[in-house]
Structure formats: structure tokens, C-alpha cells
## 1
Amino acid sequence: MTPHVVVTLPLPASVLDELGRSYRLSAWSETGPMPDTTLQSWAADADAILCSLGTPITATLLANSPRLQTISSISVGVDHIDLGAATRAGLPVGHTPDVLVDSTADMAVALMLSVMRRIVEADRFVRAGEWGQGWSTDFFLGTDLSRATVGIVGLGPIGRAVAARVGSFGARVIGWNRTVREVPGVCAVDLDDLFAEADVISVHTAATAETRHLVNRDRIGRMKPGAVLVNTARGSVVDETALVDALAAGKIRAGLDVYEQEPLPQDSPLLGLDNVVLVPHLGSATAATRQAMMERASINLASGLRGERLPWCANPEVYGPG
Ligand code: DGY
């Protein structure tokens, strides 16, 4: 029988056509998130789910979807999936590591530079027709990445790629990782010291129960006046209320790609602050990277439906030891 695959997000027609050659698809095509009730009813007789961020894959959904053989996510992060429940149910979960490292690292550096050189603020100034004065020595002054100490929180592939990039700008790089990791060019420091010493802090830890609000009020309070916090990892890693308070008080600056709630609510206090650059979760958003992510997710999906080991599996323990 042709496997039934639920697709929880709009995908390019070419990708859906390709998938439709091998599977019976139930595909969500609207831009808003797929309602849980729709997902529950489609998944009830599904053999696989192809998903991404924004559609929670809960323990209840898994319990009510007895035919599921695999879940494949078009993302490296899998915090939208109850990984523990999937593993207990014997379901391999596919994800897409490696291919988005460079794009996400580029976005982190772009946010740093946008904040430090006031690019977005200056763009708004020019468009508002406010540029009336001549060149002067104190006009729109920023800060230099080459003179900064950059603190990397989480020295996985993306954190290391950011370290290499800012190192090549001439920055001094310090870093912290939960399990101690030696990275050439990165001076390992305690996490609290990193917050106190760095001029720029870039967050690259995965979202787990342990990393929730790792960047808490106390650590934000340790940051130097005018220091910059960049988050391209997950919103839950930063206590957003504490961050808003520090930004509103003008103590620090920030560049954010991710938020505790996405899409960012229209009444978020972040929207009224000038010392933060906001982008809508675009870390991996280049055409080539998204293509590579979809390819990996399709390969994971096919492998899971054939009963083979997923090449990029987020819960390899599902296969048992060895
Ligand atoms: C991921 O893949 O987890 C990224 O956050 C998507 O940009």
C-alpha cells in the first residue's frame, strides 16, 4: 500500500510533486500554522509526518497515530517534537544538521554588525528624510567588531563557525560549552564570566529543558553597558522579559532572530525598542540551504518508511546500543 505522509507546512510544488510520486500526501498549504485538530485527524492513519518548526508534535498526537513509522523535520532543532515520547514509541526522528551551519553563522554576524554599526537605525533615519547635516566626526557612531571581545555560548558547529568568522574580523573570542570543548582560537571561560567580559554575546545552544532561560536575568545583569546580545538559536534559551527590561533601560543592545513566542506577538514590547534589531527566524533562510534541508528531510523520510536507519537522526538511541 502507498504510504500516507502528512506534510505540516507549505512546500514548493516541485518538492510536493516528487513526494507525491511515492506517497499519498495530506499536505497543509496555508501560510498560518496547521491547527492541531487537523493534524490529529490527518495523522490518525499516517505512516509518516514531514514537519518543521511551528507544528508541535506532541505525545498525545503520537499516541493517537498508531501507524506512524517515522517523523522527519525540515530543521536541525527538534524542540517542537516531544523527542522523549517519540523515542519511547520507537519512532526515529529525522532532522537536518550541518547544511545550515554557514547560513546561520552568517546571520549571527549580520545581526552583530547591524547592531554595532546601527545599520537598521541609520536606514530608518535616511528613509525618514532626516539626513540634513553634512559629514561630521560624531555622526551615528557605532562600535567595532575588530576591537570587541565576542562570547560564544555553545560551541557546537554553528557556535564554532561564528567563532571563526568573528576571529577573522580580529575580535578576541571567548566561549562556553556545557561539556568542556577545546576550540582553536577560543578561550574557554565560565558562563558567568563570559557574560561579564564580552562586548558581544552570541547564543548557539540547542533548546532543551536544561537550557531554558540559560540567559537569565542575573546573566543579562552582568553584561557590560552597551554590550550586544545576539540570539539565532531558540527564544526559550533567553529570558525575554528580563531582556526587554535591560533593553528598555538602555543598558544593552540586541539582535534577535528567534523569540519565546513565534510569530512575535504584535503587542511584544520588543517592537517598541530602538536598540534591538529584529528578524523573523531567518537563520537558515537562503535558497541553497533550504533546498539542502528539504533534500535531507526527504532522504530521512524515505529511509524511515523503508524501515532503514535515518542518515540524520535526532534520537539515535531509538536504534538501541551500537
Ligand atoms: C532549525 O533548523 O532549527 C533552524 O532554526 C531553522 O532556521
## 2
Amino acid sequence: MQSCTSQLPTVLPVPHVIRRQHHGVPRHLISLTAVVGARPNFVKMAPILEEAGRRSTFQCRLIHTGQHYSPEMSATFFDELGMPAPDVNLEIGSGSHTAQAAGVMLRLEAELSERRPDLLLVVGDVNSTMAAALVAAKLGIPVAHVEAGLRSFDRRMPEETNRLVTDVLSDYLFASEPSGVTNLRAEGVPNEKIFLVGNVMIDTLLKFRGKAAQTGVLERLGLKSRGYAVATLHRPSNVDGMDHLASLVNMLTELSRHLPVVFPVHPRTRERMGGTGLAGRGLILTEPLGYLEFLRLTSEARLVVTDSGGIQEETTILQVECLTMRENTERPVTVTQGTNRLVGMDPNTILRAALETLNSPPRLLAPPEFWDGHASARILDVLERSLVGRDTSSFSVGS
Ligand code: UD1
């Protein structure tokens, strides 16, 4: 891996060096505690831990909060992504958002008080991310947030609260796309804390794309490359109201008259649908898929219909048309420079947009800046330069 300083024309400056605390860790080592909790966290943290493992500067400890715990939502991802087993699992499990956050806080406080790492590293916007950042901030441990600055400007989304709280507590804010930088600046975050480094989820995608292509998921489900759609649905705004959820499932059923629709069902959605009928509609239902199978499935789809955040980004790189069943997105670059279209939550509009997309030629687009497989290396470069107290002026390339 070449030095990534030269790849950083728009990374913002870091004039300050955060004071390190030392608890039996040699000065040249950075003790880093990484916290993950839910499925998308694993995909984002894996490449950072792998890159840290290649460097002698970092001593890493991995904490799993246990927010996601089912084998298909957690262990499968650790296996497939080659992540080290967590050093600790806080086993907080399911519950209200307050119960989840409080569980993480109480259990993580003991761990962080004892170890006092130089840095807490969190990714994304799930409840575990916010709760972990809050514990570290209360203990005076610097926080690095990967995927900082994304904003849907919709406070009804639990993730928006998590993003706002995590960012306000963070010392290092690593943005995946330019909107993240703009939003943080507008909120008054000093430039020297903000770094545009690219997208770690795409580091993982590019690394595993070849391996994913070897899985047999298309054959197992009887699908032809580019001849099917993939649907995912798990956001509270879409699945927590029974009538709305039923109308979206009816819409997918209608779409399946035009091409096969594969629907890996998130546990939250399955719970909401209960026995009232996903079966017998002509949809190809599966349990939540592992990372590799899902990546192959989306790579070769004609169309993806989703309410996920990460899938908007993955389809942009895979050049697969994505219809996002939401009124807003915190990832606008996927619309302006990617294959994503916001189609709102009205089932008729979504169906119309899907059929239109099937009749349009696929678009070919250049990937967003720094979505190139090297985001993790950039993050660790910044941390090394700052935390080992070296001169950071080589990053000061202007804002
Ligand atoms: C969480 C994140 C969301 C992310 C999503 C990815 C928050 C606020 N939400 O939502 O941003 O996009 O993860 O999946 O943090 N369940 C299981 N097995 C599990 C985990 C959950 O069966 O391993 C079931 C439980 O019934 C649980 C429900 O799924 O109540 C929802 O899980 P939860 O972690 O609360 O939120 P997600 O909807 O997964």
C-alpha cells in the first residue's frame, strides 16, 4: 500500500494533536478500542481492523455490544469478513432504544474505565455507535467517528439522532462523502477535526467482490444474472405500521409479475408481518443473507428496491439501479453521482418508478471521490500522524 498522503488532495488539516494517556502501552503504540453492534457496523469496521493489523502502531481491542446477535445477523459476518472474534461481547440484545443504549453504556463504562484506550473508534449510526461514543466522551477518551456528517435532516429517524449525538462528541470526524464535510462545517465543527477519507464500506465491497461472485446464491434461487430484482425493507417508518407495510408488500408482489423479486426478510420485518402473509405471493423469500451471498445478489440484479442506507452506496459502486423507498437520504452523493433514486413511500409511485427503470438502459457513472478501497488506510494515516504526535502539516492541504 503506498503512502496515502499523496491520495489526499481534499483531506482537511489537523493542526492539533490530542494528548495521549498511557496505561502500560509503549509510547509508539496507539491503543484503540473499536466498538461494533449491528450488521452494517461489521462491514464498515472489518477493513479498518485489517489495515490496523498490518501496522505495528496499533494495538486493537474489539468490543461487540451484542445489539445484533442472531448467527445470520452477526457471526456469519465475522466469519465471512475474516474479522477477529470480539474480545468482549456486552450481550445487550434487543430492546427499546433507551434500553439498548443504556445497556451499552453501563457495560462499556466498566471496560473503558479499566483499559483507558488512547482512542475509541465507532462507525455508522446505530444505537451502539451513539452509546459507545457517549461513554468514551464522559470518560475523557477521544472518539473517532467513521461516516461522520451524514444527515437526512429527518429527526424522526432514530439514526439521525445517533449521528448528531455521535458527531458532537467526536474528536476525529471521518466523512465518506462531501455532504458530510458541508454538514459538519454548517454545525460549527472546526475544520481541523474533519477528514474526507472516502467510504470504508466500499473498501470491503471491493475486497470481497471476487469472492462473492463464487457463491452459488443465484443458482440456488434459480435466478438469471440481471433478470431479477432485490428488495429489502427494515426501517421503522416502513415496517412498523401494518397497513403501510402490507401495501409495500403488495407493491413488491405486483412487481414480481414483471420479474422475479428476491426478498431477504430482516427479523424486524418478519416480526411485524407475523403470520399474516409474506408467503404464497410469488416473492422469493429468504432469511437475512450473509455478506457474500447478498453482495453477489445485488451485483447481478437488474434493480434493487430498498430502504437501507448502505445498499444505496453499494449499488452506486456496483452500477446497479437502486430505488430508495424513503423521502430523504443522508447519502446524497448516491443520487447526484450514483445509481440511486429517491422514490418516496407511496407504493404506486414506487411501482411506477420500478417499471420505468426496467425499461431504461443502465447508466454508467464514475464512482464518488475516494470510494476506491483505500478509505481505511487514510483513516489510520490520520490517526497515526495525530496520535503518535508527529507533525501533521503534510495533511494541511487547505480547505
Ligand atoms: C438496526 C439499526 C439500523 C440498521 C439496522 C441493520 C438502530 C437504531 N438501528 O436496526 O440503523 O440499519 O440495525 O439491520 O440502531 N433481531 C433479531 N436478531 C438480531 C437482531 C435483531 O431477531 O440479531 C430482531 C429483534 O426482534 C429486534 C429487531 O430485530 O427487536 C430489531 O433489531 P434492532 O437492533 O433493534 O434494530 P434494527 O431494525 O436491526
